[in-house]
Amino acid sequence: MRVxxxxxxxHEFGQAYDSxxxxxxxGVLYLAGVLAREGVEVEVVDxxxxxxxxxALIDRVKRCDPDVVGFSTLTANGAVAARQAFMLxxxxxxxxxxxxxxxxxxxxxxxxxxYPFIDYVIRGEGEYSLPVLVEAxxxxxxxxxxxxxxxIIYRENGVIKYGAEERGVRNLDELPFPDRRLILxxxxxxxxxxKMPKFTFILTSRGCPYNCTYCSCAAFTKRRINLRSVGxxxxxxxxxxxxxxxxVLFTDDNFTVNRRRVIEICKxxxxxxxxxxxxxxxxxxxxHFDMLKAMADxxxxxxxxxxxxxxxxxxxxxxxxxxxxxxxxxxxKARRAGIDIITATFIVGAPGETLREVVxxxxxxxxxxxxxxxxxxxxxxxxxxxxDDLAAAGYINVEETWESAPNVxxxxxxxxxEKTLNQLILKYYREFAMRKEFIxxxxxxxxxxxxxxxxxxxxLKSSRVFYNQLTGAFSS
Length: 476
Prior knowledge:
- The protein is of the alpha/beta class.
- The chain folds into 2 domains: 2-162, 3-Layer(aba) Sandwich (Rossmann fold); 189-475, CATH 3.80.30.20.
- The chain has helices spanning 26-37, 54-64, 78-91, 102-114, 129-138, 143-146, 217-221, 230-242, 259-271, 289-297, 312-317, 324-337, 355-367, 385-392, 398-401, 418-434, 436-447, 450-458, 460-475; strands at residues 2-7, 41-46, 68-72, 96-100, 120-122, 152-156, 159-162, 190-191, 194-195, 199-202, 205-206, 226-227, 247-250, 277-282, 300-308, 341-348, 372-377.
- The strands form 4 sheets. Strands 2-1-3-4-5-6-7 form a 7-stranded mixed β-sheet, with helices on both faces.
- Helix 4 (102-114) links the parallel strand 4 (96-100) and strand 5.
């Protein structure tokens, strides 16, 4: 049996950035690995990584001549995946279409209810469930076999039903490494207007113990965190280096949650002499200096902090569990530790957040000693607590919004208007980059960092493209 796994492009909601891929679809590559281990012939089609139009993607899948096509879905590409699934089903009505991922997990019954050409949904982690489903289909795909697939949602005589309880991966070390040879020639590394040469992702853990109200992670992982062993992570990093990669993003839901483990990984990188530049994301309340210094010494060049707001009241509304002053401290420690580039994300547009509070957050970003801010307008993402709360209060019609992630400011009467937020964000992006003292600092830092200098020289063109896209998006 042949299986084709598809990662649809994410660009349906008009984000500021183009549709080029930051990195490979690790979830899809994990699934490909477990299927191959079971003797299933499998191929991966990554629409963004291969720069494929819908028509070109369909042609690629047709050349695979699969029996099963699986789509990895987020809220941002669920509708794209459904459109592509419809085209494939028209080509081959006998083709079995399977949806998985966050979007399918949170709204699986709605997916099957709206789209009759989608055959199955798998909830939660699919590394155990998908091979069981493929085996059931090989046996004929009868209802008695299908209903035993963990996490399956299916139809029986036109009625949508839930099968066996979903089964997560207990020991991540048992999974084969993502087979990057399946996508080795794809074009990755586009992050915030910067093109990282020879770039990939790695996942050292799954899940996050926190419950930030704007995030849907808890709906998928139930606030559990599952850690790979340090040795297993280091083995994969060695494989990544052997494949010729030079830059890696640790794409964990919360990489810095375990200070001791991060330090052990960093010590292992140095002991094994793994020569990679890498990027990590972290919380400001877990910014321990010894950990950050170990990260810098082991090749960490960029850190992304989730700051989110410069107002304690808004942080508390988001249930972030951090304090404003911790952001200042975290940036100072990362700078002192020697991490080359420090960036931070911010969210504005919460219900009840005043214009003054929005401006305070934008100004707070300027005061932080960061190299680049990322400003976002609060979105109501299905699966996030904010989405559920707004639906319960009557501000969101779930049946009309489950395939989208609307900005809360676009419909909530107690938000600063969305147009005003866009104008402010554009204004402060420009002001941030044009400050004389900022430019002076950045020039000095770039001249003293070989890593930064190489990025600047190799990205002059893409940075201009990014700025044009950014200003166009927030001025619309």
